From TrEMBL, chains A, B:
This is Polyamine aminopropyltransferase. GO terms for biological process: spermidine biosynthetic process. GO terms for molecular function: spermidine synthase activity. Pathway: Amine and polyamine biosynthesis; spermidine biosynthesis; spermidine from putrescine: step 1/1. Its EC number is 2.5.1.16. Keywords: Polyamine biosynthesis, Spermidine biosynthesis, Transferase. Belongs to the spermidine/spermine synthase family. PANTHER family: SPERMIDINE SYNTHASE, SPERMIDINE/SPERMINE SYNTHASE. S-methyl-5'-thioadenosine binds at residues 62, 137, 168-169, 194.
């Protein structure tokens, strides 16, 4: 497993919840107006010029910080890891929602595990075929802070089809009525800490059981360049849980390590070829990244991924 | 124009050639082992954990630094801007070379403007239809340092079809015999400093004149997210120089601002639909990113680009 904790450089200088950072990370940031997240496993960092830290708190699950920035709008940082910026979250949210929803023939019941910022829920509810979407976020504070600082992501929270639960997603899926769900979206933090149990065969088995035939699971699957071994192990665990077909879709995501990210889709009892291209091409809602051509493009794997994943 | 000088944060602390950095960039980096490049126009930064600065010099054109890093191999930095890492340059070099070469029916004569690290030349010479490829780099020191620190990129420098010229690319194209070239690749630094004159209609007119009918121009065109106005103006200038068809191909590039980059292709007297898909699918050389599916995928534009570029 090539993943691990991302280390935040500059937030720590004025973060009361973090222990002092290790010697080899020292950057005097008291004078600086950059928030920089150094990602240890890949030896690279990404930073944003910030103007203000608007909020910081320690919840029972994690620390959450909100910054304002000069060029990326507001930022949400969890345990020192950049979760989203107002400017570039559309890439992730559109790609974790629309390819799966335009692959399923008619996803009526959707479960989102994690996704506390509500951006994925908003994208899901753009689909009129969705009759019910429940977001199961372990940390209510993520959602409350999103409502305050990222109201645009929470636009659909009042939709009568939306249900916001604050609960353990692993337990939720384990207890889910068999064959009751069309799509499970795992929109979690990295596979360390609270999200660790969302990346293994036991969890995938719960999802498999909860899904109806031809149901889909889609999960954020980290960086193609930095986490190829994780992607391989996720795909293997999905298959061993019974999923018949698995595909990984890369997409750009500037605020995450290496600036390149992916989601992995798996399907129960069917292959992943059912893209409703006409539906995507004539969709009645606006997107900024996703469209029918981007959907097909995201299914093309770079040569090194094709080799590593045996496709 | 949304571009400007990229500001290097940490290199400056021990770079004798740079003036003191501005107040709002201060990070005490003497104790740090990260090289971080803050890109002013987009208010974001990208850094790499370095182990050693192997070389630094001021040439008549620019300052060049070479670092070793923990996870990205050697890095080349010009005027504080990350030019390449050993680990991720394959993305850029493959994407600036192969889509154009597999679009042209048979590119025999190729001109590379810039490209001093020789990685583009290496990719071009993988194509057996290429009979002659000249690299016109203004700064010989870039190539000499690449030979020393990135020998893998210079593997093809001894190929009898290769010619290495150290000269002004703007002048070279202006003086080029009309209709003598099949493909011009502009592999330059950002459109400031020595490369500024490579991003305007006068230069594109020289390229147009030098190209044979159905000849191609391809140029690195910065970040889709941070430089959309630049991309628009490049495309407009290419069209006003006479090019019939223009297409922009995005691709991931972790070491460049926003981690997302692009190249723009233009064609003389023909459209850009002639992709030799069978040639790409049966190519006799190895790539790590590019393949026939990636070629088609790179032609799919995200929705915001399609809207901005009128496609």
């Amino acid at each position: 497993m090539s993943t691990g904790n991302r280390e935040s450089l500059q937030s720590r200088a004025f973060d009361p919840f973090h222990p002092p950072f290790p010697e080899d990370h020292i950057m005097s940031s008291t004078e600086s107006n950059w928030f920089t997240e150094a990602y240890e496993p890949s030896g690279s960092s990404i930073g944003f010029r910030v103007t203000e830290r608007l909020h910081a708190e320690k919840t029972p699950f994690q620390t959450i910080e909100i910054y304002d920035s000069t060029d990326w709008g507001k930022l949400m940082v969890i345990d020192g890891c950049m979760m989203l910026t107002a400017r570039d979250n559309f890439l992730y949210h559109e790609m974790i929602a629309h390819p799966a929803l335009f692959t399923h023939a008619r996803a009526k019941r959707v479960v989102i595990i994690g996704g506390g910022d509500c951006g994925t829920l908003r994208e899901v509810l753009r689909h009129e075929e969705v009759e019910h979407a429940v977001q199961v976020e372990i940390d209510e504070r993520v959602t409350r802070l999103a409502e305050k600082y990222f109201p645009e992501l929470c636009e659909a929270n009042g939709d009568p089809r939306a249900e916001l639960k604050f609960d353990d997603g692993i337990k939720y899926m384990a207890d889910c009525e068999p064959e009751s769900v069309d799509l499970v979206i795992v929109d979690s933090t990295d596979p360390v800490g609270p999200a660790e149990g969302l990346f293994n065969a036991a969890f995938y088995a719960s999802c498999f059981k909860a899904l109806r035939p031809a149901g889909l699971l889609v999960q954020q699957s980290e960086s193609p360049l930095a986490h190829l071994e994780l992607i391989k192990s996720m795909r293997m665990a999905m298959r061993s849980a019974g999923f018949q077909a698995v595909k990984t879709l890369p997409f750009p995501q500037p605020c995450y390590p290496t600036g390149w990210w992916s989601c992995t889709m798996a399907r129960k009892g069917a292959d992943l070829s059912g893209f409703r291209e006409r539906g995507a091409a004539t969709k009645q809602f606006a997107t900024r990244y996703y469209n029918a051509d981007i959907h097909k493009a995201a299914l093309a794997l770079p040569e090194f991924m094709r080799e590593a994943l045996g496709e």
